[in-house]
Write a structure and sequence with these properties.
The chain has helices spanning 5-8, 13-26, 32-39, 57-60, 89-100, 115-121, 132-136, 149-164, 168-175; strands at residues 45-50, 68-73, 105-111, 180-187, 192-196, 206-208. The longest helix is centred in the C-terminal third of the chain and has 16 residues, at 149-164. The chain has 209 residues and is of the alpha/beta class. It folds into 2 domains: 1-40, no CATH class; 41-208, Beta-carbonic Anhydrase, Chain A (3-Layer(aba) Sandwich), CATH 3.40.1050.10. The two termini are 28 Å apart. It contains 9 helices and 6 strands, in the order αααβαβαβααααβββ. The chain has a 6-stranded mixed beta sheet, with helices on one face. The structure holds zinc ion. Zinc ion binds at residues 50, 52, 75, 111, 114-116.
């Protein structure tokens, strides 16, 4: 567990981590960061992940800066395509990644023990809140087995996938096979990723990566 040196004023792990980051990626004219600042970002992969502190896509996939274009939100939800004047942060990130960066792969990364999914299936689990309950209610829980939150998280991923296809600029490259959409489920306890196989049914649908 990292200490927060900035808050306590003592020499701390995150400051050491920052120095390690600079040595590895940013020092010298030929560093990865110097190169990225010259050529800009050209990620091939976009990830929609949860805010959960245990599910960091770049760490899990051991990526370098510039490799992944990431948007994170509570319960890694892709909302429906709602083209109005509202403030649609996730949709804006998708538009940036797909229309402007032209990523080739879109990974929807769900995970076990998701607090957002728990809040969806049991409103009392979190208590009173302003934004979380309305946000997670994007997911329709009618088909959910409320005793199995991880199965719910997998069904929520399938709903996000269906929502993706409402976005015209996602549907088009997806149909033309210039964009692949992947449904992945990360198991926190084992660190394993399972991928969704649309041709199979039930739990056999999810096979190890
Ligand atoms: Zn989560």
């Amino acid at each position: 567990m990292k200490n927060l040196g900035i808050l306590t004023g003592t020499t701390m792990d995150i400051q050491e981590g920052y120095q390690r980051f600079r040595r590895k990626y940013a020092l010298g004219d030929r560093s990865i960061m110097a190169g990225l600042s010259q050529v800009g970002q050209k990620p091939q992969i976009m990830v929609v992940a949860c805010c959960d502190a245990r599910v960091d896509p770049a760490l899990i996939l051991q990526c370098d800066p510039g490799d992944l274009f990431v948007v994170r939100n509570v319960a890694n939800i892709v909302p429906p395509y709602t083209c109005d004047k509202g403030h649609h942060g996730v949709s804006a990130a998708l538009e940036f990644g797909i229309c402007f960066l032209k990523v080739k792969h879109l990974i929807l990364l769900g995970h076990s023990q998701c607090g957002g999914i728990q809040a969806l299936i049991n409103r009392e689990s979190l208590g009173e809140n302003d934004f979380i309950a309305p946000w997670v209610s994007i997911i329709n829980k009618d088909r959910f087995n409320l005793h199995d939150p991880d199965a719910c998280a997998k069904l929520a991923l399938e709903q996000s996938f269906q929502n993706c296809k409402q976005f015209p600029w996602i549907q088009k490259p997806f149909m033309q096979k210039t964009l692949s959409i992947h449904l992945w489920f990360f198991d926190i306890r084992t660190g394993c990723i399972f991928t969704h196989n649309a041709e199979k049914q039930g739990e056999t649908r999810w096979i190890p990566l």
